[in-house]
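Duplicate of #3305? Posting structure anyway:
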């Protein structure tokens, strides 16, 4: 049999396989979409609200283009469904349940993408999945992942500026993210950390490497450059803004439109990265490989085999959401403990209190002419920590839209060593909050989620409690002096709540 005949035979067998596999993939994807609609909706909301992940809207079209770009290798690739691989949905379901119990939405979304990979693998088989692997693996960029890197990027940028100023002999004083020079004060905010540049650069770097290079080493080298170069370049960008302020003699003038200038700088960096990678390109056309005897002799899969693989995987994938629904139903059956009412500071005017509703007490004070709101909310002992986190974010309004800055602060004599601080520009507001778990103040972070996640499964005698204090800020909400005055006001209000810490611990007596 000639090479052309072998290719024709392989193409015919591949086409017959696709006619059986395509409906199975559609059914499997539809069921997964219904089972994990919460993850999909949450991802789209982040894409829409955060400029760091707005490029995610282009991920699916790019993945389709990557699949189209590899169309020449598909006709000679057999489709051999592997229904037994559907059992891999069980450990994935366990991983999803763990992420769901500790309230890590990004973990749930990553597991969903793993389900999608497993679906294509079980329905199409190893060879076809590998032929489409670039397009399928690119789908992981649909997950808005990486926000946890922001504090580390802020620290790197602040240290980069400090070292640069010292080398240039410019007097400076650096206190965490605050940088003082004779021309004024600069603050390395989250928007200056370079996360949005880094995430977009990685997504572009992977696309460029898949299209331009064939060697895995060259691909890895270019992707590594796409990670390292934007981090260092953002350090130079931030240092340049401070130097401009030094030259102009005004920190505010230098910082004007720094985000816009940052995107222009980032565009130049990406262009230079492209030009640096072009001399090593390997995107010449490849001949379609002839079908091997193994491919020619592979019998086309029956119409039911791909469908069985898809349905079996979907059935096993449903175990995780079903378990979570059962645990949530158990949490809803528990009665909520009445929260303690917030206490007004001696030098603040308090509005008439309203009765607590659904375990939520709200009090409003006016301190030094500034209106402030205190919220204390109790939850069921077996509540999912994601519910607590959602309530905490709803109070702060950090995902409503616009820009948000997160940090922490200490309040002597009350609760946690560190309180979570969120400042937003839509509306201009600061919210300071903390959560009590197992009758003790939490330190925040993953450890608290794991504790409450275990409580949601095993039960606990304690009601988790959220306390939050909010106040409106002036239009220049991210000014360091305004932030410090706002923190001082919040600290005064929180200091008056010291007796509540004991009341929160006593709520354990009402638990189950």
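Output from current build:
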């Amino acid at each position: 049999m000639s090479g052309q005949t072998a290719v024709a035979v392989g193409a015919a067998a591949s086409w017959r396989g696709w006619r059986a596999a395509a409906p199975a993939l559609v059914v499997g994807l539809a069921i997964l979409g219904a089972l994990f609609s919460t993850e999909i909706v949450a991802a789209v909301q982040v894409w829409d609200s955060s400029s760091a992940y707005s490029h995610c809207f282009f991920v699916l079209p790019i993945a389709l283009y990557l699949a189209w770009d590899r169309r020449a290798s598909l006709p000679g690739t057999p489709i051999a469904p592997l229904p037994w691989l559907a059992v891999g949905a069980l450990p994935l379901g366990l991983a999803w349940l763990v992420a769901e119990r500790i309230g890590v939405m990004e973990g749930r979304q990553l597991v969903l993408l793993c389900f999608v990979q497993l679906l294509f693998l079980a329905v199409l088989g190893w060879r076809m999945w590998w032929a489409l692997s670039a397009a399928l693996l690119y789908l992981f960029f649909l997950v808005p992942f990486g926000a946890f890197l922001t504090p580390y990027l802020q620290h790197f940028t602040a240290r980069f500026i400090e070292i640069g100023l010292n080398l240039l002999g410019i007097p400076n004083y650096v206190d965490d993210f605050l940088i003082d020079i004779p021309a004024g004060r600069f603050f390395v905010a989250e928007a200056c950390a370079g996360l949005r540049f880094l995430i977009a650069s990685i997504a572009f770097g992977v696309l460029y490497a898949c299209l331009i290079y064939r060697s895995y080493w060259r691909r890895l080298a270019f992707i590594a450059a796409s990670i390292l170069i934007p981090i260092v370049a953002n350090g130079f960008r931030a240092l340049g803004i401070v130097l401009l302020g030094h030259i102009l003699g005004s920190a505010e003038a230098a910082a004007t439109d720094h985000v816009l200038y940052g995107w222009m700088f980032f565009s130049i960096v990406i262009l230079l990265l492209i030009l640096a990678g072009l001399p090593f390109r390997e995107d010449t056309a490849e001949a379609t490989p002839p079908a091997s005897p193994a491919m020619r002799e592979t019998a086309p899969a029956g119409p039911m085999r791909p469908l069985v693989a898809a349905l079996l995987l979907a059935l096993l994938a449903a175990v995780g959401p079903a378990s979570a629904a059962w645990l949530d139903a158990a949490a809803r059956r528990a009665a909520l403990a009445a929260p303690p009412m917030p206490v007004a500071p001696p030098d603040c005017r308090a509005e008439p209190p309203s009765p607590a509703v659904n375990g939520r007490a709200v009090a409003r004070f006016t301190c030094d002419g500034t209106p402030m709101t205190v919220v204390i909310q109790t939850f069921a002992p077996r509540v999912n920590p994601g519910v607590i986190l959602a309530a905490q974010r709803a109070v702060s309004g950090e995902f409503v839209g616009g820009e948000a800055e997160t940090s922490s602060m200490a309040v002597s004599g009350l609760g946690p060593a560190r309180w979570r601080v969120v400042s937003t520009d839509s509306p201009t507001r600061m919210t300071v909050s903390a959560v009590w778990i197992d009758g003790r103040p939490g330190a925040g972070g993953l450890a608290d989620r794991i504790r409450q996640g275990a409580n949601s499964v095993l039960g606990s005698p304690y009601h988790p409690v959220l306390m939050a204090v909010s106040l409106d800020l002036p239009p220049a909400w991210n000014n360091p002096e305004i932030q410090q005055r706002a923190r001082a006001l919040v600290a005064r209000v929180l200091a008056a709540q010291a007796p509540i810490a004991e009341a929160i611990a006593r709520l354990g007596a009402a638990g189950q």
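Confirmed duplicate; merging threads. The chain has three domains: 3-143+287-327, 148-280, 335-510. Residues 287-299 have pLDDT under 50 and may be disordered.
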